[in-house]
Description:
This protein has helices at residues 3-13, 17-31, 34-44, 50-71, 77-88, 102-111, 123-140, 154-161, 163-180, 204-219, 251-267, 277-280, 370-386; strands spanning 144-151, 186-191, 194-200, 237-244, 273-275, 284-285, 291-299, 306-307, 312-316, 325-332, 339-350, 356-364. The chain is of the alpha+beta class. Strand 4 (237-244), helix 11 (251-267) and strand 5 form a beta-alpha-beta unit.
Amino acid sequence: MTLHEILLGMIEDKNDIADLENEVRRLEDQHGLETYAEILYILANIKIGPLEAAALWKSACQHLYTLSQSLGRPVNITVALLDYLLINAEGEYINRAKVIDVLDYERIAQSAIRDGLTRVFNAGYIREQVSWELTKDRRYRRGGTVILFDLNKFKQCNDEYGHMAGDAVLREFALILKEYTRQSDVVGRYGGDEFLVLMPTTHHEGALIVANRIRHAFEKTVVHVPSGPPEGIRITTTGGIAEYMGEIGEAEVLIEAADQALYLGKREGANRVYHEYMVKTDPVLIPHDDMVDMRVLDTVEEPVKMIGKRPFKFIATDHMESGRLLRCELTLNDEDQNLTISGLITEANPQNDGGFEIAFHPVEQESGDWLAINQYILKFERTHQKE
């Protein structure tokens, strides 16, 4: 880093003048008196020699202490410097000085890209970042994901406890997002109670893990506000994930895929994370001869952990209602035992012979034979591709 860059970061980070003075002296040991010329140029656009700059810096710091004591509050170093020049320099420097408060400049720049309430990025900025990432990915094909979150029953929270309570909930969720994501990820408020996370180089398996950690953390969070109930406010979130790998051209297409997955998660009871595969992947049709039988055992209540990449269709004699998450037992013609699998019924189409064509999207649960069934479907696909 250059001396200019080091001083810029130092001025932004150091609010205490004693700390700033110590750091400047430390830099003087490394860069000489040029340090003082550079810092005066940064603070007030004053260009003078190193010796003169060192003397002026010392006088400005002494004036800052005096000014702070007389006003009874902290004073910015730029304010102290310019005040000293106005009083003591008789226009020698001030007529060529340009007031540049680095912190104010940074705040103005950040306000253009940050959400004022939550301090994460705003919708416009995060859309630009998604577009830029997709442009890069068409060349490098490293892939990645976006996660779209929506807070469940947020409108009800606003209606019951007021907008100040809703604002507190939004800020708390934003803090959780920043805590569970990487510095390389981009977190933004997409609108209202929707938040978008861009995760470059992270594929759906990793995104599902992160999204569920966020969901669990928020589920346990209690927000206390004066207008809220004594026990605090607790609500949950639903997430939708979409993955990219060089082939998606527009940010809107990717975000829409995540929104479709989010909608499906909301429809299935909320407080869960769904992946776009559940929406757009064409299921593999397993002929009746290959799948001997499939029976419903019970309804799955726990949230989905991971979406299988190989959804399939089969012909069932019994009707299975679309939109239900079920645990089933099935028998395949080349397996010696019955296998259990959980999944979402996304289609249930009546057939002419009285049966039903069922589209089944497998999901991984704590128990079950998901991996064995997924391998079976992969083998089935390869076999029929050769034919």
